[in-house]
TrEMBL record:
It comes from Variovorax ureilyticus. Pfam families: DUF2282. This is DUF2282 domain-containing protein. It comes from the Bacteria. The keyword Signal applies.
Length: 101
């Protein structure tokens, strides 16, 4: 087998590998539906505002009943202490943002 034949085979194998890799990433790119789950967050790990904190990472106590994070839809009810929340102050800026609007 000469060098040019090996080079062509290597190029074809690379293209096939790239094609298979690109095709498989489509499964990972699917959008997962989420919900806001309150009462399970570690201090400083919340995803956004509450009536007591202004935005992400500003909660001061573990498992604050208002602090929330996004979880896959249907997961929150399965976590001890978790509750789905849709409070209006659970937005960037927290309660302060609600007073401006």
């Amino acid at each position: 087998m000469n060098a040019s034949h090996q080079l062509v085979q290597g190029a074809i194998a690379s293209l096939l590998a790239l094609g298979l890799g690109a095709a498989s990433t489509g499964a990972f790119a699917q959008k997962v539906e989420t919900e806001k789950c309150a009462g399970i967050v570690k201090a400083g790990s919340n995803d956004c505002g509450t009536s007591k904190s202004s935005c992400a990472g500003t909660s001061t106590t573990d498992r604050d009943p208002e602090a929330w994070i996004y979880v896959a839809k249907g997961t929150c009810a399965r976590i001890a202490g978790g509750s789905v929340t849709n409070k209006p102050e659970n937005v960037p800026g927290g309660a302060a943002a609600m007073k401006k609007g």
